[in-house]
Amino acid sequence: MPRRATTNGARTRTAILQTAADLASVDGLDGLSIGRLATELAMSKSGLFAHFGSKEELQLATVEEARQRYAREVIEPARAAGSGITRLHALCEAFLSYLERAVFPGGCFFASAMAEFDSKAPGPVRDRIAQCQDQWMDTLERAAQQAQERGELHTGSDPRQLAFELEAALLSANWYYHLFN
Q1: Over 90: is that where the pLDDT of 48 sits?
Q2: How many domains does the chain have?
């Protein structure tokens, strides 16, 4: 019997976090509340609160859910594309597909979270969002570096700068896609 309760608890937590990530992509992480989630999931507040000890814990778990979804939808599909310029192209295409398929109803979860937390004081949630963004930038930079090593990019190119410019274009695509459909 305890195993079944654990399985049900894990499923409930997963459902909570999936809903929380969707809501946060639209309303922001600060807009998340136990009350709103309880209403959305038709759960009691106390039942929902049992999964998270604080709003910060809920926010951190929501960021992790979003990171996992992003990895599944953007990074993992691009790994099959090989390396170098092919992977760089696949990463950009996967990101655009992620937007078109509305993986998060509010667009890119991390674009929203970065805009919400960029000017806030450092803290666990802001730091985790920044860490996720650094990991994404490192992924783009590694692909650009591989492309350069394979002779697919000019040797004078700066892979970090290219990653920055690609990310700027992808973030712009996110905002244009959602603002102008």
Answers
A1: no
A2: 1
